Here is the input.
Amino acid sequence: MSVEKVLQHIQERDIQFVDFRFVDIAGRAHHITLPASEVDESTFEQGVAFDGSSISGFRSVEESDMVMMPDTSATYEDPFMLQPTLNIMCSVHTPDGVQYERDPRSIAQKAEAFLKQSGVGTTAFFAPESEFFIFDDVRFESSMQRSFYSVDSEEAGWNSGREEVGGNLAHKVKVKGGYVPVAPIDSQQDIRNEMVSTMQEIGLRVERHHHEGGTAGHSEINFRFDTLTNSADNLMKYKYIVQNVARKWGKTATFMPKPLFGENGSGMHVHSSIFNGEQPLFYEKGTYGNLSELAMHYIGGLLYHAPALIALTNPSTNSFKRLVPGYEAPVNLVFSRGNRSAAIRIPIAAVTPKGCRVEFRTPDSTANPYLAFAAMLLAGLDGIKRKLDPVALGYGPFDNNIYELPEAVKREVRSVPGTLDEALNALEADSEFLTAGGVFSPDFISNYIQLKRQEAREVSIRVHPHEYSLYYDC
Here is the structure.
């Protein structure tokens, strides 16, 4: 959409406000709103100024002036505002007009440009499957003398014996028993329907939705694949809609990977493929999983760089409470066709040449999608460039349930890092693949590691409630 068409849309639709948005390093959106009467061609030429020193990890106070540059192809009418509002996603530039090297969206755009320059293909497609929980009540505190969290859900299995207004009607969701039941066990069909309808209203193509495997409102909605930056934009819209529709229903939604102890967590399985024009590059009929040699090298790159990659695809301390055996989490760095216990799965059901893709199951939604998708593409391209063979490197294929393999065999399988600090150590040791083509700068990587180490330290130095259970009577 051109600037002229955006301005025409504002006039024709009687838009009252224009909301300019950007995404920080952690993956959270920020916005500045202008009355529509103040938006003209110069707004799109000059951008919208903001204070970069107030955004964690961006700029120091002596160089704080930053500019949001609107992307006229990334607009939609906000479905939640009382006054008609047009949302526009932006990339961040310095005052002299240069893409800011710490702006995640600019990094995603650079990754797409690097793919074209590499000669491998023209377009990378991504499709994230972002899971979430819907709760009724969430309380938490972390202070000097008290630390706790408490969540509740009317459909949670732990409430089967609770006295409820009007009587307890039972049909609660059992622990690990939430995968695709019908009502009345699935009590949130209407909420997810409204989420889907709202997504469709703003242009997202939704393929399906369902209750996920956990109790207490575990959910998943799948929207259609798109190009790298567009898919990251779409995920930001998706999370915005999920959280605001939940709030409209008097509930709260979280994409936190592991909000409940002893229950399956929420992942963000990411499907990806590369095309050259209209030609899919991952398909070759009759091979393992119908994958081409190029696709196998792409897998080799993902698995070879996985420990470092996970610092970007699973960037929270909570991520590693999901990445433990026994809760359907893909902790083993191997590949397989159709096997959901592998870190990389090759979908084989009803797959066409254009639908042939690789599914990386390790990521979660604490990831900044612009950074995660860009890093995945760069890892795969490095595998293609170096012709990394995942079979020769010992990454599979493993077509049996990995959790049920003999212990001697499992010991030979490489696992994901056990903590955020371990993943950051891996990123420090293996970051060159990210700097190819200037996509990630050394400054960004160093700054990112510093920010994430601070998060890990904030958790590690605090007294944990379970420590009272273990040690109070020592």
